[in-house]
Automatic annotation (TrEMBL):
Record region (Disordered): 277-291
Residue range from the parent sequence: 481 to 771 of 779
Start and end residues of each EAL domain: 24-277
Record's compositionally biased regions (Low complexity): 277-289
Domain of life, source organism: Bacteria
Descriptive protein name: PAS domain S-box-containing protein/diguanylate cyclase (GGDEF)-like protein
Organism: Roseateles asaccharophilus
Length: 291
C-alpha cells in the first residue's frame, strides 16, 4: 500500500510503530495467559566432568508448551518477556519450578546434584530478585550449592555495576554463577577478574569448529585464562566425540551438549540422577532389583 500510494514517510513509520506496539501487546497478553495457565516447564540438560564423563549436574532450560503452537523456544519468548517487563514474573516462575524440582529429587533420592537456572540481567534490576531467590532456596530447605545461575557474558558485562554486588551476595549464600556464551561478548580481563563467577561456558560457536587448528588455539588460550582465574571451563554445544576429545585435550573441565545429553524431561533427568547417585555408592546391594 505504501508503494502504490506514496505519502509522507512518517505515515510509514506510524504504521510500523502501530504494528510493533500491537505485536508487543499481543505478546504481553499471550505471555500473561501462559503464565496463568502454567504452560511453562523446565527441561534439564546434563553437564559432565571432562575425562570421566560423570554427571555433575544439570542446566534448566525453559520451554513454553503453547497450545496450537507446539513447543516454543526461549529464544523467541524470553526477549519478548524482557521487552514487556514480564521477565520478572517468568523469572520468578523459573525459580519456583527449579527449587521445587530440587526439593522433589532430594525427597526421593536423599541427595541431589546442582541445577543451574538461566537468569536475565533485567531480573537484577528488581532489588527483590536476589532476596526472593534466597528465600525460595530457604523455603525448600535446599542444601548450599544446589542451585546455581548462568548469565550471558554480554549481559553481565553490560550491567556490571548492578550485577556485581548482587552476584557477590549470591556467592556468599552458596549460589554460584557461570558466565554463559563466553567468547561472544566483549569482556576485558579486568571485568572478568571483578566478577564473582565460578565458571565460564565457552559458546558453541567456539566449540563447533574443533579440532580445527585456529579454533583449537583460541580454546586452549581461553582455558588457560579461565584456569588462571581459578574457574571451571565448560565446553557448550558439544555435538561429536571429536569435539569432546578436543575440548578435553585443550583444557575444558566440563562438557555439555547433545553428544553428552540432550535437554531432558524432569522424569528422565531424575532417572539419570538416580543412576548417578546409586553408582556413587560402593555397596552393590544398594542397586535396585529389576522389577
Ligand atoms: P544457553 O543458556 O546458552 O543454553 C544453551 C542452548 O543451546 C539451549 O537452547 C540448548 O538446548 C542448546 N543446546 C545444548 N546443547 C546443544 C548442542 O549440542 N547443539 C546445539 N545446536 N544446541 C545445543 P535453548 O533451550 O533453546 O535456550 C536458548 C537460550 O535461551 C539459552 O541459551 C538461554 O540464554 C535462554 N534461556 C533458556 N532457558 C532460560 C530461562 O529459564 N531463563 C532465561 N532468562 N533464559 C533462558
Ligand atoms: Mg545457559
Ligand atoms: Mg550458552
Ligand atoms: Mg545461549
Amino acid at each position: 500500500r505504501a508503494k502504490a500510494e506514496p505519502g509522507p514517510s512518517y505515515a510509514f513509520f506510524e504504521a510500523s510503530m502501530n504494528q510493533a506496539a500491537q505485536e508487543r501487546m499481543l505478546a504481553e497478553q499471550s505471555l500473561a495467559k501462559a503464565l496463568e495457565a502454567g504452560e511453562f516447564e523446565l527441561l534439564y540438560q546434563p553437564k559432565v566432568r571432562a575425562g570421566s564423563r560423570e554427571l555433575l549436574g544439570f542446566e534448566a532450560l525453559v520451554r513454553w508448551q503453547r497450545p496450537g503452537h507446539g513447543q516454543v523456544s526461549p529464544a523467541e519468548f524470553v526477549p519478548a518477556a524482557e521487552r514487556t517487563g514480564q521477565i520478572q514474573a517468568l523469572g520468578a516462575l523459573i525459580v519456583a519450578l527449579a527449587t521445587r524440582q530440587l526439593r522433589d529429587w532430594l525427597d526421593r533420592f536423599g541427595e541431589v546434584l546442582p541445577v543451574a537456572i538461566n537468569v536475565s540481567p533485567l531480573q537484577f534490576e528488581d532489588a527483590r530478585f536476589v532476596p526472593r531467590l534466597l528465600a525460595a532456596i530457604e523455603a525448600m530447605d535446599l542444601p548450599r550449592g544446589s542451585l546455581q545461575i548462568e548469565m550471558t557474558e554480554s549481559a553481565a558485562i553490560g550491567h556490571i555495576e548492578e550485577v556485581r554486588p548482587q552476584l557477590e551476595r549470591l556467592r556468599q549464600a552458596g549460589v554460584l554463577c557461570a558466565l554463559d556464551d563466553f567468547g561472544t561478548g566483549q569482556s576485558s580481563l579486568t571485568m572478568l577478574r571483578q566478577l564473582p563467577i565460578y565458571s565460564m561456558k565457552l559458546d558453541r560457536s567456539m566449540i563447533a569448529p574443533l579440532p580445527q587448528h585456529e579454533a583449537s588455539a583460541v580454546v586452549r588460550a581461553t582455558c588457560a585464562l579461565g584456569h588462571s582465574l581459578g574457574l571451571e571451563v565448560v565446553a557448550e554445544g558439544v555435538e561429536t566425540e571429536e569435539q569432546a576429545l578436543a575440548a578435553e585435550a585443550l583444557g575444558c573441565t566440563q562438557l555439555q551438549g547433545y553428544h553428552l545429553g540432550r535437554p531432558l524431561q524432569s522424569t528422565q533427568a531424575g532417572e539419570l540422577l538416580a543412576g548417578r547417585l546409586s553408582a556413587a555408592l560402593s555397596a552393590p546391594s544398594s542397586r535396585p532389583d529389576a522389577p
